[in-house]
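Hey, I'm writing a tutorial for new members on how sequence and structure tokens pair up, and I'd like a real worked example in the thread rather than a made-up one. If someone can provide the structure for the chain below, I'll link this post from the tutorial.
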Amino acid sequence: MLDTKLARITKLTMTTQEIRQAYLNFFKERGHQIIPRSLLVPQEDPTTLFTGSGMQPLLPYLLGQEHPAGVRLVDSQTCLRAQDIEEVGDNRHTTFFEMLGNWSLGDYFKREQINWVFEFLTETVGLDKNRIFVTCYSGNPAQGIAKDEESATIWSETLAKAGLDTKQVDIGNVENGAKSGEQGGRIFFYEDKNWWSRSGGPELMPEGEPGGPDTELFYLYPQVKHNPKYGEHCHVNCDCGRYIELGNCVFMEYQKTKDGFAKLPKRNVDYGGGLERIAAAALDDPDVYSISVMRPIIDTLERLSTKTYDSHTTPMRVITDHLRAAAFLAVDGVIPSNKEQGYVMRRLIRRAIRFAFELGIEQNFIEEATSVVVDLYEKDYPEMAERRTAVIDILAKEEKLFRQTLRKGLKQLAKLGRAGKLSGADLFTLYDTFGFPIELSVEEAATQGIELDPLWREAFTQSMQRQRERSHTATKGTFKGGLGGHGDIHKQYHTATHLLYKALRDQLGDAVMQHGSNITEERLRFDFSYPNKLSLEQISALEKEVNTQIERDLVVAWAEYPTKQALNEMKALGAFGDRYGEKVKVYSMTPKDSDQPYSLEVCGGPHVEHTAQLGEGGKHFKIIKEESSSAGIRRIKAVLV
């Protein structure tokens, strides 16, 4: 599907698809197990709406839990960062991207990682070694953390072998970098950019929290001129676009203690590299939209609009990014709605349609454009091929709905404009409630002679900021507590979801499949496939069965099995859309007087040891709400009281 120009380029360089596969093969040859990508919607992490980094699904294993596939892992993880939605339109920001990742869980450390990543980028991908620059951590004396001289020394040896200069420069922080510039360096030390922990910098970490220094790799685009608005001088962490970060090696080697920081006995490596950015570097093009998984979508937009990418760059970039994100959300079971992940998905699709108006594309175009997205990914992600029809239908249906909404928006605009003036709140209502693009509202107001309040932009911006927070941050009340902790109540509710899942299939049939769960300190939430609202009798029967199994005091245990044996022979249940490696953990819940499990489910934990623990203090399982989550998906919220 590559256009003629792109085909000529990729004869000399690797395509994005080839780089992805080469990376997996490179680390497989070095003893790593290839693990499947996790869903874009985290199944057991209520602290975030989306999988936003490659390490996010691996965090339990980086914190000490054993991974079924071993201590050396590699994957390409699809990620979505909705907070970047307003940034899309320049040459490097996207909401959807793939993160190439490799991990060492207590195995190899800095020397192997640094040498391997440099070898992959320069020898396998073929990037110009002269344009690779690196950063290291300058330390934090106040916290007792030493400068990461070890990484810098390894880099010096690696770069020297490649015939490169190895000058080290202490930048300090980004502000200093803007004042002093690169100073002819190749290895740079930063104090504010090269530390990783879940909590932020060392001074923000709570006692017991692990963290460590990281070393980042940047690629220089000399054809890009420094923009002074980002500072007087350019440096590797400048935002002007001359240097683009390609990857980040995190070395988790410290733990916060009451006395400061101590070295961890089991050190980990976490590498994340941006696939799209590496592919763009291979083309020597700072525009990530030029790569082989995006340019064909732009080619389609050029043909449908009869306009060129060079003359309409921003709208074509936005549409390309948003349709990729929406297509993968659909693959992973998300449906456009006005809540949580579905809300973000709806916003992505409608923004794509809004920008299509700028291109003059007023006919239905999403079906054809989404088909191109599926073509680009179906070979490497078979689930895309399996759900091709459903994915295209979901996005096309939303387009049809939105075009109907536009007509309603026009009527509402005329209604609000009867007073002769539109406020920022009015414009946001048109945008958020009626899905009416702000640009069209402003244009239509001018056409109808409706005045805009002089302060409408400020009011609209404030409303958008509140919406942005809603889009990518779970609200404090909704996700209070969460599974971020592994306390007893979290384990109890997690175990209860297993009992509920089995009870649902017993009561409603084997067509019931899990479509996600969410655990907080106050309740559990369980989504499942079922076409009808549950009756009071059905809800009562579910409660009775779950409470019966709690009273039976089932023994909860787990063991690892080959995936095919667990799913096909043992018939262990898994969540809809989940993909697994060669081995999985299977949790069983078995009566004490039997060897026949009541429940078998693929899961990572945590759980209680006996189901009677759910009933401690006289508690019982109680369903407090049963409702529709989306088309064909029901949602149960339940408590132990």
